[in-house]
Amino acid sequence: MAKAAGGGPDKPSGKGAASRNTSRGAASSKKSALGKATSNDDVDAALVEEGPPNWKNAWPFFVAAGVVALLVLGIVLSSISRPSEERVSDDARVQYAINDLYTAKNGLNYAEYRANTCDADLDKTGFPSEAQFVAENQASLDQNGRIEIPEITDLVVDGDRATAKVHWHYKDKADAKQVVETIVVRENGEWKVCSS
After folding, report:
1. Model confidence pLDDT, tens digit, residues 124-179
2. Where do the domains of the chain lie, and which CATH numbers do they carry?
3. Torsion angle (degrees, nearest 10) of CA 130, 131, 136, 139
4. 3-state DSSP assignment of residue 174
């Protein structure tokens, strides 16, 4: 029995062989389409399902960014519309007045001392002149050091009048602590230390 050149059941050749190979490739493609996917088909399917990022998927981010922007805008507008002086409580302003008075003594700043003293005390005959103020406070600084105020307690504001206990000591004599009952009054919108 003679075989055709290149023929035989194991070795397809010629025109018929090509058509059979093509039909096998088509059959394998059909198998993939019917649900029997290969590993390459799984990767392709995953890429098709995910696709490129879509702006519609980012809407929660845009909403959150909008809320944050509105909060920041509200804070900024609040700060601009209300100056910082108006946001400070009366208790804090009273403490500032007391601290400023003692700071003026430490710094030998007569103008600041007068600015934080009430009109009733300024009008008294015994109120020190600038020369007296500087001389007395310089001598105290040389002998005792600066005045330090660790705390102000029992602060009570009642309308335009406040009382507080000022705990203070000299820097060089920290063991000699003093407590002074202090009166602070509001004059023309500003709190000032007063002797009565």
Report:
1. 999 999 999 999 999 999 999 999 999 999 999 999 999 999 999 999 888 889 99
2. 90-194 (3.10.450.100)
3. 130
4. strand
